[in-house]
């Protein structure tokens, strides 16, 4: 074979990775400070993987990116923020710690506040999480075929104040959190199916909603009726 | 990354044909094999590209390579409810996971946005959103955001009592970008677009409109358009 017909044969299973690790160089200016947070559980053990949100206290109607950091193995993270006052709102849904910026979980109380000022631009806070919410594991299936339903939506309401609600999607682990020690009404829906209520089956015939203890994990199966049945 | 190219007839000084932004160093050429170290700059387009080799005036066949990096944003959660401590302010929090071109989750990534606010018609005027401004947006100093673990939360809010008339608000186009923070370049790579509107009675993101009575949500796993 002549050189003119030569061809590359192989070869290249190449993945050139374009610098995902950014330089993370931020401009520090006089109107900025740093808030460091350490997150521990009820026993004092640090928790990694907690998203720590910093929400300005002076914005009753906040719109925009939520400034947040993720805790490391020591339960710590920090972030550079504009000077001001903030609510510290940690969450790790997979371990039972919900997003307390929703009234449905926070019940109108902010547990932690912090301020950074020109005189004191760096501040730190240790946050002890708990009690945990209750975790519901939900398996939704087609009532006719038994097939698993993928995109499931949830409407959660406090039974004592049905005005308060949280509407959310079932997460990839088929889990969602409900506030403990209170009745919660749960409606399950999916495109193409009739919505259904999730009821706690108890010996006493209790059907008001779900009532679970802090940290309790309960699994449910629900079969949804299709709204349209093909001939 | 070090690359080995095999074939034959390469001669002693073949030329590599590389995608724009990719540079070669430490090239060692033999007739049947070339080893070379390739590096991609932040200006390189993310995605599939091809490389080839020219020897003695003849160009080889092309081989596909993947230039991987932060490429798109995918919905990881969409929740609507009252803001803590308020009776009239509803927030919609959408969690996005940044994914590489290879669809793996990106690690910690610096991102920014350039939201527009259009047709605002409330009284009093709704304040501008708290944005992670990209460099070069007129009137706003650059204020990028470090998305830990490649995830971030964008919150859109409506206040049912603060503004009049009922149903007023504004429209918004909010393009998000990866900002590599390279001091030598001002390259941004678009990740996705959240477009819609914020009204006192509804929040719409990419055609999915939520009201208090009908809080629709974007399904998890949805890739945001660009």
Query: What's the helix-strand series of chain A?
Result: EEEEEEEHEEEEEEEEE
Biggest interface, CB < 8 A: A-B, 64 and 88 residues
Q: What structural category characterises the helix and strand content of chain B?
A: mainly beta
Q: Extract low-pLDDT stretches of chain A.
A: 1-16, 19-28
Determine the fraction of residues in helical runs of chain A and give it as a percent range: under 10%
Q: How many angstroms does the end-to-end distance of chain B come to?
A: 29 Å
Strand tally of chain B is 17
Spans of at least 5 consecutive residues with low confidence of chain B: none
How would you describe the overall organization of this protein?
By secondary structure, chain A is mainly beta. Chain A has 1 helix and 16 strands. The radius of gyration of chain A is 24 Å and the shape is elongated. Chain A starts with 14 loop residues before the first strand and ends in a 7-residue tail after the last strand. Chain B is an all-beta fold and 226 residues long. In chain B, strands 10, 11, 12, 14, 15, 16 and 17 form a 7-stranded antiparallel beta sheet that branches. In chain B, strands 2, 5, 6 and 7 form a 4-stranded antiparallel beta sheet that branches. In chain B, strands 1-4-3 form a 3-stranded antiparallel beta sheet, with no helix packed on it. Chain B is elongated. The relative contact order of chain B is 0.17. The mean pLDDT of chain B is 91. The interface between A and B is large, with 64 and 88 residues. β4 of chain A pairs antiparallel with β13 of chain B.
């Amino acid at each position: 074979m002549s050189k003119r017909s030569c061809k590359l044969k192989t070869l290249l299973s190449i993945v050139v990775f374009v610098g995902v690790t950014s330089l993370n160089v931020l401009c520090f200016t006089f109107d900025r400070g740093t808030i460091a947070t350490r997150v521990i559980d009820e026993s004092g053990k640090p928790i990694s993987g907690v998203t720590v949100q910093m929400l300005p206290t002076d914005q009753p109607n906040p719109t925009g990116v939520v400034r947040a950091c993720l805790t490391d193995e020591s339960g710590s993270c920090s972030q550079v923020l504009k000077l001001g006052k903030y609510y510290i709102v940690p969450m790790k849904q997979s371990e039972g710690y919900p997003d307390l910026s929703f009234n449905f979980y926070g019940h109108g109380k902010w547990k932690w506040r912090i301020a950074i000022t020109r005189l004191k631009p760096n501040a730190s806070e240790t946050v002890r999480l708990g009690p945990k919410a209750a975790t519901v594991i939900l398996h939704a299936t087609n009532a006719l075929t038994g097939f698993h339903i993928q995109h499931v939506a949830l409407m959660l309401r406090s039974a004592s104040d049905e005005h308060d609600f949280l509407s959310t999607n079932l997460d990839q682990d088929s889990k969602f959190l409900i506030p403990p020690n209170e009745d919660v009404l749960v409606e399950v829906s999916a495109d193409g199916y009739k919505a259904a209520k999730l009821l706690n089956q108890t010996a006493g015939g209790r059907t008001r909603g779900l009532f679970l203890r802090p940290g309790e994990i309960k699994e449910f199966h629900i079969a949804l009726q299709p709204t349209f049945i093909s001939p | 990354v070090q690359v080995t190219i095999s074939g034959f007839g390469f001669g002693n000084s073949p030329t590599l044909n590389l995608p724009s932004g990719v540079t070669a160093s430490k090239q060692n050429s033999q007739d049947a094999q070339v080893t070379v170290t390739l590096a991609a700059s932040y200006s390189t387009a993310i995605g599939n590209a091809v490389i080839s080799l020219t020897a003695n005036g003849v160009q080889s066949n092309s081989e596909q390579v993947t230039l991987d990096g932060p490429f798109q944003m995918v919905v990881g959660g969409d929740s609507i409810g009252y803001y803590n401590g308020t009776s009239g302010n509803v927030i919609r929090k959408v969690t996005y996971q940044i994914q590489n071109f290879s669809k793996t989750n990106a690690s910690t990534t610096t991102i920014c946005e350039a939201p527009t606010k259009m047709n605002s018609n409330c009284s009093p005027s709704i304040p501008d959103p708290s944005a992670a401004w990209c460099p070069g947006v007129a009137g706003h100093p650059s204020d990028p955001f470090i998305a830990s673990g490649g995830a971030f939360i964008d919150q859109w809010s409506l206040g049912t009592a603060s503004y009049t008339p009922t149903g007023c608000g504004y429209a918004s186009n909010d393009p998000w970008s990866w900002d590599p923070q390279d001091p030598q370049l001002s390259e941004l790579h678009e990740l996705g677009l959240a477009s819609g509107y914020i009204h006192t009675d509804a929040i719409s993101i990419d055609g999915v409109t939520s009201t208090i009575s009908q809080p629709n949500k974007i399904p998890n796993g949805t890739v945001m358009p660009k």
